[in-house]
Amino acid sequence: MLGFLKKPIVVTAEINMNLVALTVLGLISRLWGLSYPRAVVFDEVYYGQFVSLYMKRIFFVDDSGPPLGHMLLALGGYLGGFDGNFLWNRIGAEYSMNVPVWSLRLLPALAGAFCVPLAYQILVELQFSHCSALGAALLILLENSLITQSRFMLLESILIFFILLAVLSYLKFYNLQKHSSFSPSWWFWLLLTGVACSCAVGVKYMGLFTYMLLLAIAGLHFWHMIGDQNFSNVSLMCHFLARGLALIAIPVTMYLSFFYLHLTLLYRSGPHDQIMTSAFQASLEGGLARITQGQPLEVAYGSQITLRNVLGKPMQCWLHSHTNTYPIRYENGRGSSHQQQVTCYPFKDVNNWWIVKDPGMQQLVVSNPPRPVRHGHIVQLVHGITTRYLNTHDVAAPLSPHSQEVSCYIDYNISMPAQNLWRVEILNRESDTDVWKTILSEVRFVHVNTSAVLKAIIFPLQLSGASLPEWGYRQLEVVGEKLAKGYHQSMVWNVEEHRYGKSQEQKEREVELHSPTQMDISKNLSFMAKFTELQWKMLTLKNEDTEHKYSSSALDWIMMDTNIAYWLHPSSGAQIHLLGNVVTWASANLAALAYVCLSLWYLIRRRRKIYDIPEDAWQLWVSAGGVSVGGWAVNYLPFFLMEKTLFLYHYLPALTFQILLIPIVLQHLSDHLCRSLLLKSMFSALVVAWFSSVYFVYWTFSPVTYGQPSLPVPELQGLRWKDSWNILIRKH
């Protein structure tokens, strides 16, 4: 029974020493001196703010990308015990002792280090030699720009890691497809492809480009499977569903989960709340939630309300009025109605309160039981403090003469009767009998007499043009806009603060307007509602792009005609620059050019039934180009269509794919164009000499890659290989 104990238990394992060595070298190159400099380096000043907000659980909005990358950086801070207390206000500021610099920079550095063995494995899975794969990994290892970008609290190295992991996973899955479909390893690599794609998109929207490329490649491969008679209809359907699950369903689910975790962590009110809707703000702890907690849910006749414009950018504002009137004549000579001014005011104020009145009744209090206002009901809006009615008429607005002036009506006993009836339209209603709800309902007020819509004039980039002159206290203009001119968020309002009015007397009502109400009604948003709003804000929020000293155009990246100074020591000449390995960048461009020229040559010759290389070599050439050239194209060309401030580091994902192309082209030239032994020997000698120059450039620029040692002025000047490079020379 115990006979199996007579023999030793033996476990055998195959260890690829190339992979081990490359991983160790990658870790050394990225982790060495990681805490240096102990100062804020370039965009650490940007990402560090979000890390601090995560540590304090304060909500924020960043339009640069989804939250996974920020959460990974915050994870580093959490593991290092960071409490979030540091003022991220200046590049070069010394970190205080409570900031775990090594921990904050660890995850980007690990991601950058693991890109080295990933490059090796990708070339192996593309069926290239281990020598070519080793060359690709060493090129990634010795690429100065990738080293610099991975050694700080930045996101590009994490993005590139997930991109390469997605490509490698799909190649492994595809190679297993030929002999072990639906095996555990087949499922593992297919599912890992979807996970890596979702993580790439979750770090930065740029990851979407590689995800789309892999979906296209997967679709092409499946199209070929459809034409293969060896697959039955049932088998094809199973393959289709497996790919749909792994490459679409799982990435979408994971993408949602990133936001779920993000919103779960950031439950406190913060400085970015104002661009969100009132409902979203009220779901956060503190801030608006402290004001709106316990408000009545349903707006009724007699309700006292404040109306916030839904647009919320570049600033939030509320419908407002005060005792001042429009001037009889404006500066340009046009006349006005001389009625009481109505504006949109960007601060909370007692003059923001309005009372919802039933036109058929005189009372300004809520009846018992309350009579709710529904979609389509006609109301009058009475200004709480001055008791004048919201009104519009056929008089040109002060700054927007094509629109109608909005005012609070004053009876001057002239031939201008009041026109103060408004129809409530609930835009996000589920039915035509929906009740107008506090915070939740997005409403539009349509003037009954003229069909004009109540609109706030808010121009994100032209605030001076949207503000009234001194007589209007520089507040924002409110107009009556004709429906025919279209729909815009500036025409939509929601009730933010709300109470049921109880005082009929004006003096008592003024006291009431200054006091809070307390009634227990919850207005929590669902996750999907919060996700939809946050995602829409991230996609549509446009910060005003300003020219940066180190910004560049996409054309500057190809030949590396630009650089970025990341850090300068306050006293010595030590500095860190985002600069690539010149030899590698030039070789990558030549490899891309050679690939395109050779591909065109082969295609033309094949069209003439002339086959210069074997069919399997041709298929290998095409598939390798689809990954490397395709990866370069999808990660580079879209920047020509983007209207945003661009920097050299945006090119690094595309560059990574282009670097993978270098050994692909070199092996192809060696295998198919160097036909004699002499030519192969000469070619190998040239490759060795070329690779030596790659290492030489890496070593030459390593002082400005790692920031140490500090170089004297003559040596710093010697590193300025291009006139367009900005190497910092300290003047004593």
UniProtKB/TrEMBL annotation:
> Which gene produces this protein?
Pomt1
Q: Name one GO molecular function term.
A: dolichyl-phosphate-mannose-protein mannosyltransferase activity
Q: Which SMART domains match?
A: MIR
Q: Name one GO cellular component term.
A: endoplasmic reticulum membrane
Q: What is this protein called?
A: Protein O-mannosyl-transferase 1
Q: Where in the cell is it found?
A: Endoplasmic reticulum membrane
Task: Name the major location.
Answer: endoplasmic reticulum
Family to which the UniProt record says this protein belongs? Belongs to the glycosyltransferase 39 family.
The catalytic activity, as recorded, is: a di-trans,poly-cis-dolichyl beta-D-mannosyl phosphate + L-threonyl-[protein] = 3-O-(alpha-D-mannosyl)-L-threonyl-[protein] + a di-trans,poly-cis-dolichyl phosphate + H(+); a di-trans,poly-cis-dolichyl beta-D-mannosyl phosphate + L-seryl-[protein] = 3-O-(alpha-D-mannosyl)-L-seryl-[protein] + a di-trans,poly-cis-dolichyl phosphate + H(+)
Known EC number(s)?
Answer: 2.4.1.109
CDD domains xref list = beta-trefoil_MIR_POMT1
What general EC class does the enzyme of this chain belong to? transferase
Tree of life domain: Eukaryota
Enumerate the spans annotated as MIR domain: 296-359, 370-427
Q: How does it sit in the membrane?
A: Multi-pass membrane protein
Name the Pfam families on file.
MIR, PMT, PMT_4TMC
